[in-house]
Amino acid sequence: VQLQASGGGLVQAGGSLRLSCAASGRTFSPYVMGWFRQALGKEREFVAGINQSGGRTAYADSVKGRFTISRDNAKNTVYLQMNSLKPEDTAVYYCALAARTLIGSHSYDYDYWGQGTLVTVSS
Questions:
Q1: Residues in Cβ contact with 48 at an 8 Å cutoff, skipping those fewer than 6 apart
Q2: What is the mean pLDDT of residues 117-121?
């Protein structure tokens, strides 16, 4: 499975970005998808996850109410809509795929990873 993340960039605090992650090489729909991020000098952390149908989602407390994860199984794509961005949201964002039915919040829960896309939020 190959995951290609895109949509990162530079945005001012309070602004919005939408990240996309396109999957190829395997049927997309049976898998849990997640977004993680890693800021400079920090460990990778869970941001959001979504189950196979899109009917169940999970978020880190730090992004609840600001970020929304969604998926389009017909397009093999998962999205992360990020609103009200803060400087502390600055990080490389990674999408990941998990061959499981429950949304995990740890890196080891996921089997495949994209290359990451940089999000920079200026104050």
A1: 34, 35, 57, 58, 59, 60, 63, 67, 68, 69, 80
A2: 98
Q: Residue with structure tokens 């600055």? A: 90
Residue 106's contacts (CB-CB under 8 Å, 6 or more residues apart) are 46
User: Rounded to whole angstroms, how far apart are CA atoms 3 and 23?
Assistant: 5
Q: How many CB atoms lie within 10 A of CB 91?
A: 22
Q: Which amino acid is at 118?
A: L
| H/E stretch holding 67 | strand 67-72
Tokens of 44: 């990778």
DSSP state of 11: E
Report which residue type is found at 116.
Answer: G
Side-chain-side CA neighbours of residue 15 (13 Å): 15
Give the pLDDT confidence of 58-106 residue by residue, as tens digits: 999 999 999 999 999 999 999 999 999 999 999 999 999 998 889 999 9
pLDDT of residue 100: 87
In eight-state DSSP terms, residue 29 is T
Phi then psi for residue 53, to 5 deg, are -85, -20
